[in-house]
Amino acid sequence: MMHDDEWIAVSHANCEHVAGPFYHGTRADLSVGDLLTAGFTSNYDERVVMNHVYFTAMAKGAGLAAEMARGAGRPRVYVVAPTGAFEDDPNVTNKKFRGNPTRSYRSALPLKVMGELDSWEPYDEEFIAELRRRVEEGMGEIIN
């Protein structure tokens, strides 16, 4: 477990100190070797075009992202490798807790699919339903 005084912010200049494996959750059907790139619509809101590709070093977190993603496909968690520099995900870093406890990152450069997990530790269905409700409410606030 990392202590507060041990946290080092991850930036494009120093991301090499972050060890994987890394994961990306989605409902898309991907293959080994595929590249996940920015410039496509969000997994959560079709009105938003993403400037970054998001990933995490926690399989459970990627599983939650897969559960939350729009689409008809089944939730999937892929093992991914960044093809270049990345940084802490500013949407979660230092928001409620110091540092990046979710080990979430983003990159403007592609992520390469290295494989797919067969299973991961799931979140409780009630938690997922509540989170979906909050996301939907939040999207309405952004538009209105």
From TrEMBL:
InterPro entries for this protein: Arr_sf (IPR038611), Rifampin_Arr (IPR021975)
Gene3D superfamilies assigned to the protein according to its UniProt record, in alphabetical order: Rifampin ADP-ribosyltransferase domain (3.20.170.40)
Rifampin ADP-ribosyltransferase domain segment(s): 22-120
Domain of life: Bacteria
NCBIfam families registered for this protein in UniProt: rifampin_ARR (NF033144)
Protein name per UniProt: NAD(+)--rifampin ADP-ribosyltransferase
Annotated organism of origin: Dyella lutea
Underlying gene: arr
